Automatic annotation (TrEMBL):
Record lineage: Bacteria, Pseudomonadati, Pseudomonadota, Betaproteobacteria, Neisseriales
Keyword field contains ATP-binding: no
Protein name listed in UniProt: D-alanyl-D-alanine carboxypeptidase/D-alanyl-D-alanine-endopeptidase
Annotated PANTHER family: D-ALANYL-D-ALANINE CARBOXYPEPTIDASE, PENICILLIN-SENSITIVE CARBOXYPEPTIDASE A
UniProt-listed Enzyme Commission number(s): 3.4.16.4
Name of the encoding gene: dacB
Organism per entry: Vogesella oryzagri
Residues of the signal peptide: 1-19
Keywords: Carboxypeptidase, Hydrolase, Protease, Signal
Keyword Hydrolase: yes
Length: 463
């Protein structure tokens, strides 16, 4: 037997471990395996169905990369059946949104600028949002108490700025001023800020109090001059009105007139295309936000995009799930236990096993898009949701984090300086999960240490 086969044989001896220090036996599921071969290095409750929290995003990312490709881009289009006469569009403008997760004010402004260059000066009809790209977006039940939080914003075909507006602060003649970006004509901004003390700013939210009453947004507090240029985001309006009001404000900033109202409808047959542009960002770029910063809305949009590109039954989320499950079967990977609610992990109901997720990660790293998936994961001790965690672990440790009530999770891979890679998944489901983050990090670090020792032993044996 050659040395490579001997090495694989040594590494293949699985350790069916008891729970790591600090955990009860039923509080954690662990699964770890070397990239090479089909061996399992360690497993503890690896087949048990658990809530993965945001590590579910890895499953969605893997499916999207394989079915859509890393260079996939989202398309946005404007159409109309109305004639254009002397710069006036004599009717409605249809905005065909297809769920670009990173559509922002800058990109929309560029689109509107190009409409102006193509001769449109005045929109005499309504702006009509065509949302027919998606039918059924999945759910995220059980988060009613967080409905005003940004992390619960549902995906939308016209998701401008992730439905987030920025309050931007500056000083003029020594007095604190603020602006809303993008400007939203339906929101009245009331500035009650006073000049405050402080040599530094940091998080500007320490100094301001923001209240919303209907269309009135009131900002009070004592703002230090050091906060000139600071900003914080606010979640305003529903997605339809956010997109419509932002469009109108940006259009008028470019010198355009109209539109005269907002509606939601399907583009009539035969409407001609006035402008069609691809997204600035590719799927691979979007997945950096999905995984490094655990963006729920973007992750859900990615799975819906998968469903929209491979329609079967007419429900976009169900079609996305069907495409994902089909890929699992095609790759002969475990298809159970798996429960999907939206594909982002923002769910009380989603379930998978540590082994299922681990096998998906192993398949990903062996495939053509492994580098793209790996690059989207937080690097321990350096960036994303792992910036202040696990930096002491040697080699390259890239892990997606997961956090919900009663759930803490880590999943990704570690690469030894000599090049060997270990896929690892650790998922805590426990009523005291919020107190077990440090223990989870310690368990992962210890797992890596044990694998390093196994590699060293194999090397010492001359393998």
């Amino acid at each position: 037997m050659n040395k490579l086969l001997l090495l694989l044989a040594v590494l293949a001896t699985p350790l069916y471990a008891s729970a790591p220090a600090g955990f009860n036996d039923d509080e954690i599921a662990l699964w770890a395996a070397p990239l090479e071969g089909n061996a399992v290095f360690e497993s503890h409750r690896g087949e048990v169905a658990v809530n993965p929290a945001s590590t579910m995003k890895l499953l969605t990312s893997w499916a999207a990369l394989n079915r859509l490709g890393p260079n996939f881009r989202w398309q946005t289009e404007f159409r109309s059946s109305a004639p254009l006469q002397n710069g006036v569009l004599q009717g409605d403008l249809y905005w065909l949104g297809r769920g670009d997760p990173r559509l922002d004010s800058a990109r929309l402004t560029e689109m509107l600028r190009q409409l102006r260059l193509r001769g449109v000066r005045d929109i005499a009809g309504k702006l009509v949002l065509d949302q027919s790209a998606w039918h059924g977006i999945g759910t995220a039940e059980g988060f009613g108490g967080d409905a005003d939080r940004v992390f619960t914003v549902a995906p939308h075909t016209h998701q401008l700025n992730l439905k987030v507006a920025w309050l931007r602060y500056h000083f003029d003649a020594g007095q604190p001023q603020l602006t809303l970006d993008p400007p939203l004509p339906g929101i009245t901004l009331e500035n009650r800020l006073q000049v405050g003390d402080g040599a530094s700013c940091g998080d500007v939210r320490r100094f301001v109090n923001i209240t919303q009453q209907g269309a009135l947004l009131r900002v009070s507090g004592r703002l230090p001059p050091a906060c000139d240029g600071a900003a914080n985001y606010v979640n305003l309006l529903d997605s339809d009105n956010f997109a419509g009001q932002a469009f109108a404000a940006l259009w008028q900033q470019l010198g355009g007139s109209g539109p005269r109202g907002l509606a939601v409808a399907t583009t009539p047959p035969g409407a001609r295309s006035l402008l069609q542009l691809d997204s600035t960002d590719t799927l691979a770029s979007v997945l950096v936000d999905v995984n490094k910063y655990s963006n729920n809305t973007m992750a859900r949009s990615v799975l819906l995009t998968l469903g929209a590109q491979f329609p079967v039954g007419g429900d976009t989320f169900a079609d996305g799930e069907r495409a994902l499950r089909g890929l699992l079967a095609e790759r002969q990977l475990p298809t159970a236990p798996l429960v999907l609610e939206n594909g982002s992990g923002l769910s009380r109901r989603e379930r998978l096993s540590a082994r299922l997720l681990g096998e998906v990660l192993r398949d990903a790293l062996r495939g053509p898009y492994g580098p793209e998936l790996a690059a989207s994961l937080p690097l321990a001790g350096e960036d994303g949701t792992l910036k202040k965690r696990l930096g002491e672990v040697g080699g390259s440790l890239r892990l997606k984090t997961g956090s919900l009530d009663n759930v803490r999770a880590l999943a990704g891979y570690w690469q030894a300086p000599s090049g060997q890679r270990l896929v690892l998944v650790a998922i805590v489901n426990s009523a005291r999960a919020d107190k077990l983050t440090a223990a989870l990090d310690a368990a992962v670090a210890a797992l890596v240490t044990r694998y390093q020792a196994r590699l060293a032993a194999a090397a010492a044996g001359g393998l």
